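Appendix B: complex inputs.
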Amino acid sequence: MKVLVTGAQGFIGRYLCAHLLACGHEVVGLGRSPETEGFTHHVGWAGRQVAAPLPRAMQPLFRSSAYRYRALDLTDAEALADSLDGAGFEVIYHLAGALRDSPIDQLVRSNIVASQLLFDAAAGVPVPPRIVFGSSGSVTGALPEALLPVRADRAQAVQPVDPYAVTKRAAEDLAVVAQRQHDLQIVTGRIFAVMGPGQEERHLCGHLARQFAERRAGLSEAEIAVGPLTVTRDFVDVRDVAAQLALLGETAAPPDLCNIASGRETPTAEVFRTLKALTGDVSELAPSGPGRRLELGRSVADISALAGLGFAPAYDLERSLSDLLDWYLVEVAEAAG
Ligand SMILES: NC(=O)c1ccc[n+]([C@@H]2O[C@H](COP(=O)([O-])OP(=O)(O)OC[C@H]3O[C@@H](n4cnc5c(N)ncnc54)[C@H](OP(=O)(O)O)[C@@H]3O)[C@@H](O)[C@H]2O)c1
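Resulting structure:
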């Protein structure tokens, strides 16, 4: 199958491309940045910012002739239409977007405007591809405990917690309109808290793993800077996310909305404890730092829709965090020189 992945050099995009290539698909990756060998973001190491390197095992896949990359801003409607015209994509995996804490103009441009333009461009193709859209579990916001694990349900009242969630919710609504107006097939997957080697340090696991890895490597004796860890999250490994997204692109009759998660509710304090144990850190460490505002209390997803398609998570918290630590200690350390 020939497929397009937007946000291909981002964290999830890289893993999805690698998964699709390993399954024998022809993959065109699209993103704004010029082609690079790593991810599009940087991570910290020993007080410096380092271009986040691609895990070594994935690198050969991106050198295969089944992979091509095109640098393009999705808000360039003309160039986007040209890229789809006659290309024969059967599925577009839409992962390009701006993350939480990005400035509002970027959130609106990359999450709302870019999504609408992609839907318009796909509708202009004689045989429109299926679109698998990566939304966010944060669109629902805080729900009464009785509604947990949260189902993916458009009829449920939502209270997005921040501007990022508002823009992802708006893109979901635009997908519904595009489906109706143009008879497009758009499958929306609400992705929960992703973890794994290569992740941005804006996310909790990356933020903590780098600090524990630096202590382990003898580069730091500092306290671990993080706010109070009193909430829960549905952490899901990025390799499981890639498998779930691929399944939504390949299965004959996918749901039009579902959760992409592990279905496990994990206290954020467990991430801290697990990293401390994995690094053999015996000091009296406790989280120390200011908390985030607008925090959700509990978060856990109902994954019955994807379980019904045969998906079961292959990675648990300990394995994901262990791989993330190794990535810092070996690959980031080497990239930092
Ligand atoms: N990571 C998570 O925990 C998580 C959870 C829920 C949902 N999601 C969603 O999943 C998707 C992927 O997340 P991620 O963690 O992989 O993010 P990421 O690492 O920031 O990757 C997103 C990619 O999108 C590209 N991009 C942004 N705006 C673009 C535009 N206008 N045109 C073309 N490319 C553009 C960026 O490339 P450039 O830097 O080159 O612009 C970047 O590489 C996002 O939509 C995010 O909202 C992620």
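The radius of gyration is 19 Å.
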